[in-house]
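Consortium newsletter contribution from the modelling node. Members have asked for a concrete example of what our holo predictions look like. Here is one, prepared for the flavin-adenine dinucleotide complex that several groups have been discussing at recent meetings.
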Amino acid sequence: MLACSPLTTPDVLVIGAGPAALTIAAALCERGLRVEALAAGEPDAPWTNTYGIWADEVEGLGLAHLLAHRWSDTISWFGNGGPGDAGPIRHGRDYGLFDKAALQAHWLGAGERAGLRWHRGQAASIHHDAGSSVVTTAAAEALPARLVVDATGHEPVFVQRPADGPIAGQAAYGIVGRFAAPPIAPGQFVFMDYRADHLEEQERRVEPPTFLYAMDLGEGRFFVEETSLALAPPVPFPVLRNRLHRRLAHRGAPVLELEHEEFCLFPMNPPLPDLSQRVVGFGGAAGMVHPASGYLVGGLLRRAPDLATAIASALDGGLGGDALARAAWQGLWPADRRWNHAFFRFGLEKLMRFDEARLRHHFATFFALPPEQWFGFLTNTLTPRQLLAAMVRLYGLAPWDVRWGLMALPGREPQLLARMLARG
Ligand SMILES: Cc1cc2nc3c(=O)[nH]c(=O)nc-3n(C[C@H](O)[C@H](O)[C@H](O)COP(=O)(O)OP(=O)(O)OC[C@H]3O[C@@H](n4cnc5c(N)ncnc54)[C@H](O)[C@@H]3O)c2cc1C
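And here is the predicted structure:
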């Protein structure tokens, strides 16, 4: 691996110390660029979020050893939970939970071995001239670089996004703990349990649907999380907490010991940032959350090399200033990815309008697609043509209530559809 030299103005300053910042800093260092990074606190401060991922994704990247847990018994429930419910569907694919300390250490180690230099401080302002940018911290330290990559998460410090109506949030309330009885089958991972037989008929008809995401952590501990796919404004935490406890009580598994609570909220469908701006984004800052599934980490791992290569080639070609930033943005968001993003935003808008029964029918159909299609959709690894083929197939398999929901264009769907077609 080539070393990052701190002796001259660095090629790139990465701001942040979350998953996005560490992945892109390591990828840039791997290409022999001079990289510095700015962390608001200590770069190795523990991350609070838990990150789950399909095992095939990490295996493809040679990082399966960074999983703390791995499940082969992976299921979802899309029946109504009442008489006649056909039972769970089996995904036939392993799912994993990252050992987040190991994941963080993996990237920090890669940066350290390449000589990545860390600064500490809060980025406060930025100034650009023709060939470089200077970030100034809250403590008035000036940090110059030829290019700045903003990886400060969903509310980025410098990256600008156009206003585009209400942004939907994925909200979830989770508990790690011990229960009066196993809340899910031992050794199991439940991706989505949409059964709602613990709710009143009226709640099921008019209130937003939520599902259980759950995993057996071993030795009598489970993680159970009541999740809303997306809504604007998001489903409030007290509602999710109440629903989780009612679901658990209904299954005869009330909480005995509460070890940890997780409050999860992040934007699902922000518009793409302005791709002509001088500061380049990565991660939440660059709108990289999958707008239909909420996943980000797999995308970071797959796409950091694209952005790092685009930056390295542009620097090699003598580009600087605005031209360098534009080349970097194009590397991160080429036309095919922009089309997929528009397609997923349009799709999420539809799903947010589906009531509980239609959503269950939709997902039952979705997971009846060939595995490479549903997996490719969830991980955003299909080309636009493959995505369209998957959706045509879904339409063919779907019951009429889902087909009707797919065809109708209420609310701002026509606007999102038009934007998607314009990108085609
Ligand atoms: C509870 C929870 C669970 C999630 N689970 C998953 C999951 O299972 N799988 C998945 O793919 N995604 C998941 N997500 C979504 C997404 O992966 C996370 O939001 C992810 O942390 C975003 O990564 P990021 O590096 O872009 O931003 P962040 O993790 O938010 O990191 C931003 C970094 O920038 C720093 N920073 C901010 N402002 C400044 C500043 N002015 N100057 C210097 N530094 C600054 C912060 O200190 C931090 O280090 C989850 C999100 C949440 C909230």
